[in-house]
Amino acid sequence: MPIITSPQEFNVDDLYVDLRHVIDRPIYLKCEGFNFAGSVKLKAAAAMVEAAERDGALTPDSVIVESSSGNLGIALSLIAASRGLKFVCVTDPRCNPASMRVMRALGAEVRVVSDKDANGGYLGGRISHVRNLCESDGRYVWLNQYANRNNWMAHYRGTAPAIDREFPDLEVLFVGAGTTGTLMGCARYFRERKRPVTIVAVDAVGSVTFGGIPERRMVPGLGTSSRPALVDESFIDDVVHVPEPDTIRTVHALASRGFLFGGSTGTVVSGASRWLDEKYPGEDPVAVAIAPDLGERYLDSIYEDGWVREHFGDVLSDAAGILGD
Ligand SMILES: Cc1ncc(COP(=O)(O)O)c(C=O)c1O
């Protein structure tokens, strides 16, 4: 019976959904949404705060500031609350209203920056706002998830060994790329151990992380409009880019089988399924994909018919078509 005193102590790290009855492929989907922050970002948040405290960068007077599309902000909100620290989350209009409400309920200040950067995204505007805050007052501490090595270290020490324990014969690992913390931590772990695991990064069409052309993206979590400093392609074997309509169709297909996942899980599962169809036709290598969060936060967006129609038209008319038996 786990008994905890702070919220970050609890995290389910050994739950997998076998997707063979959903998409006709035995991909094992590692569920990262079962903790008090509701997402994989709890690990990065905890590692970055612990390291900053250890280094003396964070003191009881500090105000943590971070740019986040939602999930890291929620994770930092709960860690700051549990440690009695203040936290300011700088986000943009694509952040789910539900995520903003969760952060505020946990005592965080949420600032929404609507300035678009040269690539038509919001990341540049968010980062400038963070930099300005830090210049204005020395109490602000920016953990900088885009460049902080503790972001990927959290997965190098936690997520990847957890997968390795359960799947010693793993052949392919699919990881979505946002800051690329999850991806780089897992990729470095398997590469350094010289394991024959093919690491496939899954990104959204319209993201520039792996050199794509910037385009409008509506689903938060994956993809960037500025290349993250953590990314190092020499550790990655392949990259799949998933169009957002496929993301939407896939999350709805999963939901129709009772699994309500977040948007980026739709991207990862869609990319994994397409990659396996291309590279392993008629074969089933041991494959794991990572599901970063669950679906409740997206009830007003990807699970809302009006929102889906407004942004993606009639995309759901054939959602059932991607289901397996
Ligand atoms: C829903 C969701 N999916 C995927 C990611 C990407 O994770 P990472 O930043 O480790 O690349 C994030 C990051 O915020 C996220 O919130």
Can you walk me through this structure?
This protein is an alpha/beta fold. It folds into two domains: 7-35 and 158-322, 3-Layer(aba) Sandwich (Rossmann fold), CATH 3.40.50.1100; 41-142, Rossmann fold (3-Layer(aba) Sandwich). The chain has ten helices and ten strands. Helix 8 (244-255) packs across helix 9 (263-279). The longest helix has 18 residues, at 149-166. The chain is globular and about 60 Å long. The model has no long low-confidence stretch (mean pLDDT 94). It binds pyridoxal-5'-phosphate. Pyridoxal-5'-phosphate is lined by residues 39, 41, 69, 71-72, 176-183, 221-222, 262, 264, 292-293.
Structural class: alpha/beta
**Percent of residues in helical segments?**
25-40%
Total count of strands = 10
Ligand species: pyridoxal-5'-phosphate
- Counting DSSP H or I runs of 4 or more residues, the number of helices is 10
Biggest beta-sheet profile: 6 strands, mixed
What separation lies between the terminal Cα atoms? 37 Å
By CATH, the topology of the largest domain is Rossmann fold
Number of domains: 2
What is the residue-averaged pLDDT? 94
Q: CATH architecture of the largest domain, please?
A: 3-Layer(aba) Sandwich
Top-tier CATH class of the largest domain: Alpha Beta
Which band does the percent of strand residues land in?
A: 5-15%
- Give me the side-by-side strand order of the main sheet: 1-2-10-7-8-9
N-to-C order of helices and strands? EHEHEHEHEHEHEHEEHHEH
